[in-house]
Amino acid sequence: MRIRLLATTLLCALLWTSAQAHELRYSVDLGQTSLHQVHVTLTPVGFKSKQAVFQMPIWAPGAYSVTHYGRYVREFHAFDKAGTELPVKQENDDRWSIANGQKIAKIEYDVLDSHSDTTSLYFAMANMDTNLFFANATALFGYFDDDKKAPAYVRYDKPAAWKLVCALAPSKAGYVQDTNATFQNTDFYAKDYDELADAPVMAAPADGPPYMVTRSFREGSAVYDVAIASDVTFSTAKLDSLTSYLRKIVHAETDFFHDTPYDHYTFVVYSPSLRRTPTFAQGALEHMNSSDYMLSNFAWPMLKRSFISIYSHEFFHLWNVKRIHSSLLGPFDYTQRVKTTSLWLAEGVTEYYSRTLLSRYSILSPSSFYDAIGLWTATLREGADSAKRKSLEQLSIDESDFHLDEAELFYIKGPLVALMLDLEIRSRTNNKRTLDDVMFALNDEAKHGKTFKDEDLIHKVEKISGVDLTDFNNRYIHGTDTLPISRYLSMIGVTPHRESEEAEVNPPQVASGHAKREGPMLIDLDASPAAQAMRKGIVGE
Fold first, then answer.
1. pTM for this predicted structure
2. pLDDT averaged over the chain?
């Protein structure tokens, strides 16, 4: 592992010094974050178009909503080798054309702070302040001449006293990713634009507060970095506790899939005090070998109760959506709104497993899953009428419109239907087939690059499970029938108490950016062997 990583970084360093066809070299100056902006310089190598174009993405994978990141680009200029400015025309919010493209020696532009933008959520945008730099990479970088396959090198010029974390592979010769990292690497490599756009970055002072605290650990075959920036103290004890739970989550989900699809993984966390939390819509965003979060710096008991499932959710996305996904979710078209009906699988099923695996692997108690069911059913009952009238497929499509009230219901209804689907398969196969089997089979196909068409998804689930799901799909996924939660819970011997439906639910909880509420669910458990066997398969008890 260590030898292979070193060989890769040496190769990247050699490529940095040699001209390669269609190569992008970026540098990002963090010296002006106090002005809520950064300066970006791009050197395109090997491009020969007479009329060059530079394209910023209009959306970010995982965030789905249309944002138009080019709206935050200012002072866009192109120069030839002599330093003479070339004519530039901005064609729309996100696209610039440059005359005499073959003469371009460099492009420069500023990127403004965008974290208050209401078209998306914090962790899909950029936050630049005196002692903090955070950016989803789609907010910083575009691609050149519509070539998304060109490799890219990125150098972040940061203050010497700052730490920096980025999920890209290092391009600096001799830098080896391993435990006890210093978080001082500033040179990175991406094999193409998809990889570049999927690597968030965060930097902050090493001493403070405000400051960044870090941990690295090895679990199985991979190395994991944890970086947390906050305006108040994030104690060593709390960081140790969080790291311990992250290790358990990593073990549980890699064990579940018997698969570790990366060598190095990074948790990028902005954890402000409650008074500095910029929005109530907290949460996180998944990436190919990382995840980034905006979660308030609560005391550990509240942090554990409210946020551990979010880390579990984002980590599960490594398989379900980053690998298993509709053909509409990759390869990506960054210039068009995504309209897919399959987000019930990508998000709803992920939220279901983020809860059940915490219980199955004894990270949290089974009661935490039953509490989640109580939360989901209560929130569904109180949800926006406009969303209630829509099917899961329609809510999937509408996710890119970014209506928070409807988006919240999507993340509630999705895991409830996932629970029902799991129980539908289990009950009709005498517990011999499960939703687990579906996920394993989809993952095996996705390993070989296979995606699915939206209209074929339910048929794939039927084929794997051996269960005809026509009626289930027409009612609860494609249709808008009321979800018979109590009937499905009875299959696992769970009977909620009526008074639990009125339980107060707090503090605020989130998953993938959508606010939720949490509270206890009072239940009776059937001790019959059939119910116990079904429960054991789902929550491990």
1. 0.90
2. 88
